[in-house]
Amino acid sequence: MTTTDISTLATALRAVLGDAQVISDRQELRTYECDGLAQYRVVPALVALPRTAAECAATVRACVDAGVPFVARGSGTGLSGGALPHAEGVLIVTSQLRAIRAVRPEDERAVVEPGVINLHVSRAAAPFGYYYAPDPSSQQVCSIGGNVAENSGGAHCLKYGFTTNHVTGLEVVTPDGDLVRLGGPAPDAPGYDLLGAFVGSEGTLGITTEVTVRLTRSPESVRTLLAGFAGTDQAGAATSAIIAAGVLPAAIEMMDALAIEAAEAAVRCGYPAGAGAVLIVELDGPAAEVDAHFTDVERLCREHGAGEIRVAADDAERALIWKGRKSAFAAVGRISPDYIVQDGVIPRTALPEVLRRIAEISAQRGVRVANVFHAGDGNLHPLVLFDDAVPGQAEQAEEVSGAILDICIAHGGSITGEHGVGMDKVGHMPRMYSADDLDTMQLLRCAFDPRGLANPGKVFPTPRLCGEVPGRRRGAHPLQEAGLAEVF
Length: 488
Known about the structure:
This protein is α+β, with helices and mostly antiparallel strands. The chain is built from 17 helices and 20 strands.
């Protein structure tokens, strides 16, 4: 796209949005050059800041008319490069669509715009005795629209599931610029599950402009326990024993010694001194059930080597226990100038073996790895530490990060649990899926976006075009021959 084309599109967008809502200054554009994964940086050609769904749709139509790609962005807290801008495209930022339109306890629903912060939904529902269950660690800053795009989870996804389990309806802007509704207040709409396809599609099928979410009744009782162990083997064995005993906690979180060190340096959470790993176990529900299961959890932790167990006596102590875990990603910045937050999934029973293998790779490569994760459902978040100022360390950290994903796949797991594929994991998609699988996924994407303008270059590793016949490629792709793309 030439400078003249950019100027023409900027003029068209300003006519729709107003001068203040379109950014074209190079220095201001740099504010949006990456999401939470800072390893990838691209300065967009333009940034648009719509304030309504109609303005968002008009922005997409202007992009379509100009043949210009567009990328949606919420709060920019994503960790896979999913909101990485396109250098010749428009970044459509939805953070100004932040109204909570309705809280309806009689329906156990809330209707919100995509820029609403995750935690604000729970605060709005609290006076009615409800809350919004999905709770990413970044819930104080991440937006609902971004949660929909990535199908975000959180610490309590073990019992309550991910975003897709709590969204019943969407209003979206299609890649053609049309406003359409998927689902609604009712639990399951008839016909094809387009709602399910859209949640977790990472902005490749359109842009969310309104979300109807399911509210969850606040539990009668909540009890939280912190257990210190000699190492991750014992903590992992305790996790499996708790689930095997028929107890379904709201959350089981684990942190290893390096993650504990970072959390202590950042927020002084007071975790057990000298622990090689800690478990945070939280139970909620009817008081009688919680009390009975809590006794089982304490016993099982002790039987599997817990050296110290603390039980939160009130909400303040509970918040302090969670403070270390919730701050873990940011806290690692206290012990390392740079780090990669990875996101792989393994079967729960494979935790000890996989964590040992990660430790071996860390020692072999001389790259520190801090582990903090949702132990209850095997969703790992290894934090690979490095110093970008030291030549070669960034590349070595990326190699270790990729090796960890390979370990997850080898144990029957997945390359992502809740952070998405984005740019970071596209090279690993063929390690999980065959070429036919990927082509089938592309068929769906192309049905929504035949022009390939919605968040191009994300999720899928091969540079296939929507006009191609799906199937195994014969010979080189034209973009590959031109040196513009790589086939993994």
